[in-house]
Amino acid sequence: MKEKFMRDAAGEYAKRLSKYCKLSFAEVPDRKAPENLSLKEDTKIKDEEGSGILKKIKDGQYVIALDIKGRQMTSEDLSKKIDSLALSGKSDLAFVIGGSLGLSADVLERADFKLSFSKMTFPHQRMKVILLEQIYRSFRILKNEPYHK
After folding, report:
1. Mean pLDDT, 10 residues at a time, over the chain (149 residues)?
2. CB half-sphere exposure, 37, CA atoms < 13 A
3. Which stretches of 1-149 are assigned E, i.e. beta strand?
4. The domain 1-24+61-149 is classified under which CATH number: 3.30.300.10, 3.40.50.11600, 1.10.10.60, 3.40.1280.10?
5. Contact 99, 49 (CB under 8 A)
6. Which strand (E) or helix (H) includes residue 81?
7. Are 60 and 93 in contact (CB under 8 A)?
8. 41-54: per-residue pLDDT in tens?
């Protein structure tokens, strides 16, 4: 993460989440994408990033890909999803955020669930903070702790 305030925000949520779960980050380099890409160039860059992402996903992980075409949920719905997965023995979750062009078809195919936060596009560094906040909010909801109101 380039901006200090983003690193600080992500660090704060990571610290808060340590009370509820084991958290780790695996990042792959964002490929440079020139302006006015052809479809072929766009696909090539996403495929290269996707290959790196897939190498970071462990066997048995339940993969939740952030995808603009995915299912939109409330915070309460996300907390129920996390709880339901844990109760069914799927507690090793991998949330995947794509680079500036999105996720490759291979990563989306590997995903067990596609989650959309909005039909809008967000910078992936900012999305990391938003995702961490929502995961933290989910645990607070599950524990009936104040925060989500």
Report:
1. 89 96 90 85 94 96 96 96 96 94 96 96 90 97 82
2. 14
3. 62-72, 93-96, 113-116
4. 3.40.1280.10
5. yes
6. helix 75-87
7. no
8. 999 999 999 999 99
